[in-house]
Amino acid sequence: QVELVESGGGLVQAGDSLRLICxxxxxxxxxxxxxxxxxxxxxxREFVAALRGNGDNxxxxxxxxxxxxxxxxxxxNTVYLQMNSLQPEDTAVYxxxxxxxxxxxxxxxxxxxxxQVTVSS
Length: 121
Hints:
single chain, mainly beta, seven-stranded mixed β-sheet, four-stranded antiparallel β-sheet, globular
């Protein structure tokens, strides 16, 4: 069992940066693949970024490559999403999700409640 809590969202202007935080409970953090998803009003949820519990095998959606960076702090059981050069189209609720490390395709059994990111032009 994993409990995930996101934080760090807010209202910013285009070109600004935000750092999202996903805090995970328990001591099984490194056994999971951790991912960020986002969902804008009226749109389907989309994949943003993912990495393994040891910090490797990083994957980004094309829409955020070069702007967003996913990272992990195993000691703190925390996953981060550094978002730079934010644009209005990045506005969405951002969710943290966890899948068993070796599930293929990844089976995201655990989700946080989401944190709102709003980018004004």
